[in-house]
Design brief:
Length: 197
């Protein structure tokens, strides 16, 4: 199923690469999204900046969803080096949450895709969810060895599921708690979301 997803997504990724991306004040290409992330009735703005081949930076402006960002105001939150992987999507998921999707390999024979869901609760930006899937092909003397898998963690409910190969996802034992976005790094992802190549 994951392999089919990668093949189906390839034309979309090629098309995405040809689309112009907005930029802030003439800086790096950016994904930009307006939503009410802090749910106070005012539109906010979430921006992801990423130079080609460089880490992605996340910038959040509260109550600036309708403002021009040239020159940009002082941001309310900045997270440098959010991921080393290429950002391919930024979308609102409802209830003030925003999902940032990145990929490594992006449909190649060795590829992973990750989605980080960000929420604002009690005055803090938190990682509310994390999902990852992988399709990793390794050349061996006997041919090609493929490792498939996925995980989906909801830090807000404390639950998660993981799958290996083409098996259905199974609940992960243990409880997960939200992580401050400022403290998040991909080294902190849960063990069921790891795989060895």
């Amino acid at each position: 199923m994951i392999r089919e997803f990668h093949l189906a997504a390839l034309p979309w990724l090629v098309a995405l690469g040809t689309l112009p991306m907005p930029a802030l004040a003439g800086n790096a290409p950016a994904f930009e999204l307006k939503l009410d992330i802090d749910r106070d009735g005012k539109m906010d703005r979430v921006v992801v900046m990423q130079e080609p081949g460089a880490p992605a930076d996340l910038i959040i402006y509260l109550a600036a969803g309708e403002d021009r960002l040239d020159p940009p105001p002082r941001p309310d939150f900045v997270r440098k080096g959010l991921t080393e992987d290429r950002i391919i999507d930024l979308e609102s998921k409802g209830k003030g949450s925003v999902a940032i999707t990145s990929c490594f390999g992006c449909g190649a024979s060795k590829s992973t895709q990750e989605t980080l869901t960000i929420v604002y609760r009690r005055g803090r930006f938190l990682v509310g969810g994390y999902s990852r899937n992988w399709d990793w092909n390794k050349q061996t003397v006997d041919g090609v060895e493929t490792t498939l898998g996925s995980c989906d963690i909801n830090f807000l409910t404390g639950k998660g599921v993981a799958s290996q190969d083409l098996d259905d996802g199974k609940p992960i034992e243990g409880k997960f708690t939200p992580v401050n976005l400022s403290d998040w790094s991909y080294e902190r992802r849960p063990k069921p979301c790891e795989f060895s190549d």
